[in-house]
Amino acid sequence: MLTEKNGSFQLNGEPFQILSGSIHYFRVVPEYWEDRLSKLKMLGLNTVETYIPWNVHEPVKGEFQFEGMADLEQFIKTADGLGLHVILRPAPYICAEWEFGGLPAWLLRQDLELRSSDPVFLKHLTDYFNVLLPKLVPYLTTNGGPVIAVQIENEYGAYGNDRSYLQHVHELYKKARIDVLLFTSDGPDFIRHGSIDEAVTTLNFGSKAEEAFEELEAFKPGSPLMCAEYWIGWFDHWGGKHHTRSAEDAADVYRTMLKRGASVNFYMFHGGTNFGFMNGANHYEEYTPTITSYDYDALLTEWGDPSEKYFAVKNVLKEFTQVPEQDPEPVLKKSYGKIQLQENMSLFDYIQNQKPIKALAPRSMEEYDHHYGLILYRTTVEKQGDLELDVTPIRDRAFIYVNGKLEKTVYRNDLEKTITLPFSEPSNQLEILVENMGRVNYGKHLKDRKGVLKNLWLGAQYWFDWEIVPVELDRINWTAGPDTRYPRFFRGELQVESTADTFIDMAGWTKGYVWINGFNLGRYWPAEGPQTKLYIPGPLLKEGANEVTVLELEGTGEPEVWFSDKPGLGEGEE
Q1: Most buried in the list 67, 95, 269, 432, measured by CB within 10 Å?
Q2: What percent of the chain is helix, strand and coil (3-state, nearest 5)?
Q3: Which sequence positions are flagged as catalytic?
Q4: Domains along the chain with CATH numbers
């Protein structure tokens, strides 16, 4: 069992230094869990750390998912089979640049205070933990398992000061018999509001290690030194540059911490991918959604290859401990060439068979239990002329059609919040197709509802009587029709003799999503960068025919895609 004694950690009564790396099971296909964990062990680390995202495991209130990429127990077993210790971070909030910081979007249907002792929030959390926590108990070291520590909340000091909420989480752990070492983690400036007496205080930072440890010593004299998140890279957002950090700099800071005898967890050892609609977003000066890749400039690349940083860190570890002689090899990658996506249909034909919801006025996606992707709002405008529309309530990006013609595309970052639309007939159809580009995962804008949040002010009045169509994309039924408008689905077939990792090149396309054999790879937006290709893990392919589906939102030239053995993540630093 891991304990703290005299300012250091002990495991089963012997001094123990946690040498850890983060791998998020929910960002890696299960077929690659053992590969990534083996490479962590080859580096010389003894522990793997992972968050546990609530929205992955309870996507719908009362409906729980623990299979496939959500099979947390199998991930723990795989780590245990390799002789690795495990640190779990159930949170319930994880940040992690993950959609809504791991909180389920259905929480936004109610007027509640997130991450607080609000009884409504605590009831939902208790319901979830009553299912999750018993699954963890058999894997605790106190029961012969590999889990040495569990986190209480996550970076709470950077959000609030409700210590009774933190105590409630602690009580839920006690009730569930989570009896291993507990810890909190915050940036050095926030540990006072994010810590509780019953848990070890740990730190999150990317540099200035000595200053950070001084803050910890001043707050909790004699506390074990641990950096629970050593940020060795950073995440990217659409329209920005690919963040990089030199291997030498990352290794030097790591050496500084090891010299102090500190325990360290690399964030990230291996970042993986924000598959599907699960990328998060930040909102400081403006809204910035995270890209599909979560490469993070980590020790392993998004596709699992060791980076220069990996070997620089291994050289540092050799100065302090024995490390395996074996080094990991790059993953097999293949180019499969070009294919044409010959079949296509309009999204508007696709949704013809979906029964619309009648509503007096528009409301957010969450009000309709529709959490990701797209939603259509339409109404009849019985007024002629050029009318001004206030687009402030629209989140995040919307295509606005009048009488079937695309008139405007608006984005929540647009400075101009009033647009002019032409209504040529006495009676006109107004359609607003809204894209959710990822909920904010950090800070004061965490309550990030999507769609049209309230009724729209058009032509100096509100318009009532709407139809709402949540666009279901979990299973795409091909119903081609006469509509020529975008968004459009495109479909083609990739023939594969032998499977390997590959990258789908979306050059020539504008913005949208890609599915391989029904698996949602995520978003593309090559013009914005820094990502121009999407990573396809080999296990998603099969020998023979593979179905490739693209939903292009705005327009494309030749409907063709390339499959390359080279990634498409832009170079440069920011």
Answers
A1: 269
A2: 25, 35, 45
A3: 155, 229
A4: 2-317 (3.20.20.80), 337-342+478-564 (2.60.120.260), 355-471 (2.60.120.260)
